[in-house]
Amino acid sequence: MQYGQQPIRxxxxxxxxxxxxxxxxxxxxxxxxxxxTGCPIVVSHVGVRRDRPECDTSGIRVSRDVFAVVRDPDVxxxxxxxxxxxxxxxxxxxALEQGKHVVTANKALLxxxxxxIFALAEAKGRFVxxxxxxxxxxxxxxxxxxxLAANRINAVAGIINGTGNFILSEMRQKGRDFYEVLKEAxxxxxxxxxxxxxxxxxxxxxxxxxxASLAFGIPLQFKKVYAEGITRxxxxxxAYAAELGYQIKHLGLARRTELGIELRVHPTLIPAERLISxxxxxxNAVLVLADPxxxxxxxxxxxxxxxxxxxxxxxxxxxxxxxxxxxxxxxRAGVPHLAFQPDALDNTPILNIDQVHTAYYxxxxxxxxxxxxxxxxxxxxxxxxxxxxILQKPAHAADHxxxxxxxxxxxxxxxxxxxxxxxxxxxxxxxxLDHVVRIRLETLDA
Length: 446
Ligand code: NDP
Ligand code: HSE
What we know:
By secondary structure, the protein is an alpha/beta fold. The protein folds into three domains: 8-137 and 305-344, Rossmann fold, CATH 3.40.50.720; 140-300, Dihydrodipicolinate Reductase, domain 2 (2-Layer Sandwich); 355-441, Alpha-Beta Plaits. The protein is 37% helix and 24% strand. It is built from 15 helices and 17 strands. Strands 7, 8, 9, 10, 11, 12, 13, 14, 15, 16 and 17 form an eleven-stranded mixed sheet that branches. Strands 3-2-1-4-5-6 form a six-stranded parallel sheet, sandwiched between helices. Strand 9 and strand 10 form a beta hairpin. Helix 1 (17-28) packs across helix 12 (305-325), helix 4 (87-97) packs parallel to helix 5 (107-124) and helix 13 (372-382) packs antiparallel against helix 15 (416-428). L-homoserine is lined by residues 136, 161-163, 190-192, 198, 203, 302-303. L-homoserine binds next to helix 7.
C-alpha cells in the first residue's frame, strides 16, 4: 500500500521505559500503523537528559534540552513521557501554546494540573491525548469516553497500580519479601520514579481522579481523593481474609451516591469469587457499573514498556487520523477531553472519607478472657453496626502464653464516621491490647 500523504512528525521528550517503548513500537509496527492511520508516523526529534544507548535514535534529531523539541517546527505532535509535574507541565503548556498536539502518559500531571491543561488545549484547538495515563495497556479512557457514552455511570472500581498488585501477588503467592519484590518491579520498569507513589496509593489516586472525571463529568480533583497504600498490610490479615473467603486487593473506587461522590484508594477485601479478585501480578482491571449496560470489566497489563507504548501509539494514531481529516486551522473537533463537554462538567460534591459507606474487616488483639467479645459487640451494636462474621483464632505461641488472642470481625455496610467512633471506644477497653486493624470491604456486586 502506498501513501502519498505527508508523514505526521512526532517529538518525544523522555526516553525511559515508556518513551523507549514507544520509539521501538513506532519502528517495529511502522507499516501496520501507517495502514491504520493513512500516513506514516515518524519520530523526528527526541529530548533526552543523558545517552540512552539501548534506544535506536538513528536518523532522529537528539537534543539534551527538551524545550528544543517543543520549539521544533518539524514536530506536529509532542509525546511527553518524562514524568513529574514541573518541567513536564511547562513542556506541555509550551507545546500547546506553539500549536502542537500532545500525547502524555503522565497521570500525576493531569490529575494535578489537567483542568488548566485541557482548558488551554480547548482554547488552542489542540488535543491532549492520555490513554497511557491509566491502567497501562488497557484502553479504559476510550471505554469511558466513547464506548460507554450512552450510559449513566454509577461506579468505577479498579486495580490500577501494577506495581502494587505485583507486590501483593508475589507476597501472597510466593511468600516473597515486600522490598525484594518492589526492587524487581523497579527493574522491570513498572514503578514510578519515586516508588512511594506506587506503594502509598498516590499513583492510584492520580488515576482515580482521571477515571472519576470521565465517569461522572466532574472537574479533576486529586486533592479530594482519600488514599491509603499497601505498606501496612500484614501477611496475617491476608491469611485471615482468605479464610473468610476474600482476597485483599489495592482498589481505587469512585462511586456516585445520593450525598455526593466517593473517591477512595485503599486495600480492600473483595469476595474471592469475583473476577477482579483473580487479577494478579502487574495486571490491572477496571470494573465499571453503568446503566443500562450493567457491569463491564476491562483487564490487561497495567505497566511496562510494551503495554504502555501500545496506549501511547494508539493516541498518536487517533490524533494523526484527526489531523488528516480536519482542514488545517479547523481546530479540534470530536470527543471532549474529559468525556463531557467542558461547559457541562458539574460540581457534585466529593465526600470526605468519614462520610463514605462501606463494610469492614476488623482485627483486634484482646485479653483471652470471657466477656471481651460481648464488650466489643456491645459497642458495635450501640453504633448500629451489624456483624456479618466472627473468627476467633487460637493465639500464636507467644501471644497465647501472654493470654492474648486475635478476634476478627466482618461488619455490614456502615458510615465510616460511626465506625471511627466505635473503634475509638473499642481501643479504650482495657482488654484490647493494640490498635484495631481496619480494612474496608466491598462486595462489588452490581
Ligand atoms: P523513566 O524514568 O523510565 O523515564 C523518564 C525519562 O524522562 C528518562 O529518560 C529521564 O531522563 C527523562 N527525564 C525526566 N525528567 C527529565 C527532565 N527534567 N529533563 C529531561 N529529561 C527528563 O519513566 P517512565 O518511562 O517509566 O515513565 C514516564 C511517564 O510515563 C511518567 O509520567 C509515568 O508516570 C508514566 N507511565 C509509566 C508507566 C510505566 O509502566 N513505566 C506506565 C504508564 C505511565 P534520565 O534517564 O536522565 O533520568
Ligand atoms: N507505576 C505505575 C504502575 C505505572 O505500577 O501502575 C503505570 O501507570
